[in-house]
Design a protein that fits this description.
By secondary structure, this protein is of the alpha/beta class. The chain is built from nine helices and 13 strands. Helix 1 crosses helix 2, helix 1 crosses helix 3 and helix 1 crosses helix 4. The chain is globular.
């Protein structure tokens, strides 16, 4: 049994299609099929339920085997990282996943001034379930999110709290107000983040607390698009404090919401028992120091 066999098995299990898996792995489909058949022979039991020539799905044995493989690969990767750290060979790399990433450029800039050797890889993910899966699978080291990740294997630490304002078009009837009740704009259209975004769930709850469901005119997962649509008069939008001062916010009305209290917490997550490289540990400490001081 070879590592490459096990790597390919994980891809086939994820895609549930031999042709698509072969295309992703850049190998011939017949070769991949033979490799999976050989793996099943070595394991001693079937791992897939097959539907036709190309489609297949893990059976119960396959699911159990896949979980063990994932753990083994995770242990191997952690062992490599730990060995490099101890030998002083690691140039320093950190992989971050984020459902909220607008604050990261300034944080990277501040950190890299003193740690230019460290390399970063950033994955921007909208769905909470995907970020959790990436953490557990070892695809990312740390995660920043608008909602806590509730999973026993993951540690989730509140970093900071920030106010969420209502952005209104130039000349809006409430522009210049010291503060508003959210119910005052219940009948007006909203520009919202798409439904899979964590912040969308938070702002939906604000509306429910104010006694209404938002009339959503447009949805986007891009801050610049949302602000442009508000500026053009297509609706109002919830804008976190960290977004203000960015692209397209300069001419928007910025309204404090008195009722309900509109705030969100930014969370930092990592897998509890997984080895974190020296660079990752150091950047984690930096994040906690920088963001908790701003809360």
């Amino acid at each position: 049994m070879q590592l490459r066999q096990l790597e390919y098995f994980q891809v086939v299990a994820r895609l549930e299609n031999m042709t698509r898996a072969a295309e992703e792995l850049h190998i011939a489909q017949p070769s991949l099929s033979k490799m999976m058949s050989r793996l099943e022979e070595e394991v001693g039991v079937p791992l897939f339920e097959r539907y036709g020539r190309k489609r297949l799905r893990l059976n119960q044995s396959g699911k159990c085997f896949l979980e063990r493989i994932r753990r083994s690969f995770s242990e191997l990767e952690q062992g490599l990282s730990e060995a490099k750290d101890m030998a002083g060979l690691e140039g320093g790399s950190v992989v971050i996943g984020a459902t909220t990433s607008r604050m990261l450029p300034k944080l990277f800039e501040g950190y890299l001034v003193k740690h230019r050797h460290v390399k970063f890889r950033l994955y921007q993910v909208t769905e909470q379930s995907e970020i959790q899966e990436r953490l557990l699978n070892g695809n990312i080291d740390l995660c920043l999110s608008s909602l806590p990740i509730q999973q026993n294997a993951i540690h989730c630490d509140p970093l900071m709290s920030e106010e969420i304002f209502l952005a209104v078009p130039p000349g809006h009837r409430l522009s210049g107000s010291d503060g508003i009740k959210l119910s005052e704009i219940a009948d007006e259209p909203f520009i919202h983040l798409t439904s899979e975004c964590g912040l969308r769930e938070i702002t939906n709850e604000f509306c429910r607390q104010a006694g209404f469901n938002a009339n959503i005119a447009f949805e986007s997962n891009t801050a610049e698009v949302i602000c442009s649509l508000v500026k053009a008069g297509f609706g109002n939008a919830f804008i976190p404090e960290y977004w203000w001062g960015g692209v397209n916010t300069e001419s928007l009305g910025k309204l404090h919401i008195n009722n309900p209290v509109c705030k969100r917490t930014i969370w930092l997550s990592w897998v509890k028992d997984r080895y974190l490289s020296a660079a990752t540990q150091d950047f984690k400490t930096y994040l906690v120091s920088e963001l908790k001081s701003k809360s």
